[in-house]
């Protein structure tokens, strides 16, 4: 049994980790870390866990936690992991970091977009970017996995094969995305109140959202050259889900069938990526699951291809991907505990 | 492996059955029955099943289906099962009927409230009312299980122990309930369009809803005498979930602790019933699970007790209960395949 | 032109007052009072007012404000008005208080249910309960109007004629109510975040909600004797709207037509009360308006009548009623500025 | 008093016309046209109109209606107006057509995108494209006004000044848009059921939506040359509202201030267009009003400008614009009846 500690267990992503792991046969949550609710029963904060666990939340530091568990998930605000992680901890336990702290190879990119100093540049090199479908082999031996962002997972996976194969012009890429409100976290803020979000929609982080450089870095690696993109997130009134629509100029004449073959080349054997042919992705059909649904359409009038992707931001965009990473790290069937059928309606 | 046939697989309850059974180790859906979508892939109608099944919907009759499978779930409109079921079918396969056709012992009650003739009164006697927590022993040997209604499951389980123990006056019982829109089915009707339901709420079936006599019959059995109640359902803009608030006059002076003990007597060992002490039920904490959450409050000013219950109408109120019944019928662990943690947020 | 000051203009009820008064021909908001946002443009807090007003929020005390305006609306948390109002202020300006501070004749009732001392019992006598359809004449000469609560307006108006005429047993009255989230105010609290409210519903304040004694006091006056009731509010995921379902024992044999005549006797000439005959109230058909929709149904099986009412909690349940009171106080057509057609869809 | 006839009064746009005109001082709805509900009271179909009108729906043809009224609004499905309109009707009454039938100068464009023959090409020349802020002068003398589409109004107004001034490259324009469900009409279709739309979002009409050529035609006129764009609509779970995010390559180096000046040049005096400087448009702040909110952001990294616009699809995107056109046609203050403050929350 893999012993699991969660730091930030009372945020939405942390609680989703607990939820997924509750039915994981080979892992068990030993420690529900929470600064705000230390001493409270976890099931009194997330009452869906009533009768399922009696454990109390604890405010434990990474080092002492690392001595009790096999793997630590840090579902914490930006800056926490880099300020607290060190090599000793990594010798004790694997760390899967759900924050943005270890997603960039170059600290200056982090510092520019996150507008704060990176406190532990040394570990950046060691960290592996945990996008399972692309970095599976690298993840296997890792001690520190940087779990990808929600928008980025969706944005990258949707475009990756076409960028990798040089079908589209990377610099022409525009990613227009929308997300449910759980992506904004559980902080008590007026803009996230029901009445402020319901019956509305809004763009935010226009031209300066932190997920932009993360998408760029991974797609640049795929392209073999630097790529600069536009990324615009929008908030829409749903609990869960991300939908991206991407636009790119085609570099060559290509058919729908040929594009499908390229997707199949990369994703044909991927259990959690479904490339649709007759439909477009819809959030309702991935919600509650670890799937990413992807589709594409060529517009011959403008010589662009429109790519679409959808996932559940708390699962494939956070906790599900983190468990998938854990499964890889511990050599368990990668899909174990993650085969939930999307919950529609 | 239990071979399963679903009649009405493309309604919300039928599809939820398919969803739950997809991860059931000992059962497999052999036949997705649908009159409307016969010949279409099930995964083209419920696209959450993309990549999970390739089966096509079939318009099969009960008899021929009964020869291929071990159990048939009928998730069909009122009147279908009674018009089509017969003893030969029951000799071939178990039948779990999710409609209201076999829930009453007395056909005249059915005919009064459903305003239609009952076409197969003979089988009414044989049918067992499939409320697992109350009728578990009777269900074990049954061939025909009448799966309870969604409102009724919630209404009955919430009041049952206090009625059974004579703590409250059955005739004073008032059940005020609200339900999500999936309870109205997947029919293309204007009143169920998004814009008609969203940002609204409404009572319906006031004093004449079909679930009224079903609640009355079961609670009358518990009370050992006939009980007449008021039941008022309301539609609220959520996908899933039922919340009931019940009011009853206390027959004797009683404390909160004493009431808790009564609930414990009946539900203390029930895996899917959680009697709350410090909180009231909320739909978000049962959604996506087979749980019923129950709470109560004595109002000394009026000498009434207020009972509250919540469940997911598609799971504990329909498909989950049906699978629970199947597990009992086939002597599998009753909770198998039903231990989903409620999906919050 | 009536000069208006709003204290608490940046709460939902205060902002709704500003919204309604924006198109009122005979009144103008001179002062947008807000402690939290003092110095900010009102239109930067409520950006629906962009280009409509340039005024800044001010943190002004009641006394100085009373010297500048003709009427003050206090849309403030409980306790504010009673702690700050005095006779000098009332000599300068009319006060319409949207809080609960002046709704009770007996301070001890307030203190019991609000669990705080009432700081200005002297003015309780002078205050007029501002339920226009019932107290119109008393409001006319008032200096201090206690604007009714949202739940209470709906609950009282729905039952009033039948209580007044002695048709129903007041002590048997049970009021089951549901409200949109704007009723909870604009405070940054976790339970009111989108993801906590959406796809859920919950009871709260069971047997101890503050609106209970307010309903009881007004219905007791109507009945000519003390009445004790049950009142249970529920939160549902909509922005605006209240729906009540009330149950009461009939004291005499009566027909639907006779009940209709009683409603007509009291409400036949009321512009903002619509007694429905063929339908039940739905929030979508009153949202955005000053209407209350009411319907009723006799259940002969239980000898109860079920009453239903719906209104927009921010309009007829707060700001609309307050403007209606203002119109009465200043001898303007009572419906002026309040004839918005309900905004469906 | 202007006598108004509405054809298609029981669709969402038609009913919104009735709602707006209810409080219009100089116009009165004489005829509520509806084929489906002929003979029913309008207030029985749209129960928000209870007590506000007693008129019945009629199934009247355009010609006979034109003899009774001064202006006809056709809020009808595509193809109806072109099949039924003729010069005689236009001699009797003004016609404001809310369908797409008369929005194109070139019938072949209509026929290509609407995939149906245009039945009355003759009148295409006479029709004036009723985008008030751009075509105000041409509308004045018109007999037949083609009311713009909802997406198109938002898309065009957001980009118009920058296209007109040659600041952006028209062919680089990408319009990514989302709409509330009322835009899909009131037809009883499964994809528009509450449970299908709620908690989801989806793209549709990718690269072939009918509003594409309408945006292109108007922006091509502004640019003085043919422009080809990408337009992708998405459905999101709200009742009302459209939000567009547009991307275009800047043709020259330009500052935020300079762009603001360009917007001011075209919209500085427009009552219903609000160009924001410190915020981005959000649907909640335009909902229930005739406003369009617009904002922009330069991304120097990609040399693109991101434009954002929001409006209420039923008001500025349909019925409000139609009334604005009517006001212009009849020489009434253009904003009469349209000064509703956006209804937030």
Helix content of chain A: 25-40%
Q: How would the global form of chain A be characterised?
A: globular
How would you characterize the largest beta sheet of chain A? 7 strands, parallel
SS-based structural class of chain A?
A: alpha/beta
At CATH level 2, the architecture of the largest domain in chain A is 2-Layer Sandwich
Order of helices and strands of chain A: EHEHEHEHHEHEHEHEHEHEEHEEEH
* Overall tally of domains of chain A: 2
Most extensive chain interface and residues per partner: A-D, 45 and 45 residues
Radius of gyration of chain A from CA coordinates = 20 Å
Instruction: Tell me the span between the first and last alpha carbons of chain A.
Output: 34 Å
CATH superfamily of the largest domain in chain A: Dihydrodipicolinate Reductase, domain 2
The CATH topology of the largest domain in chain A: Dihydrodipicolinate Reductase, domain 2
Give the strand tally of chain A: 14
Q: Number of helix segments of chain A?
A: 12
Low-confidence stretches of chain A: none
Taking all residues together, what is the mean pLDDT of chain A?
98
Strand content of chain A: 15-25%
- The assembly state of the depicted protein chains is homotetramer
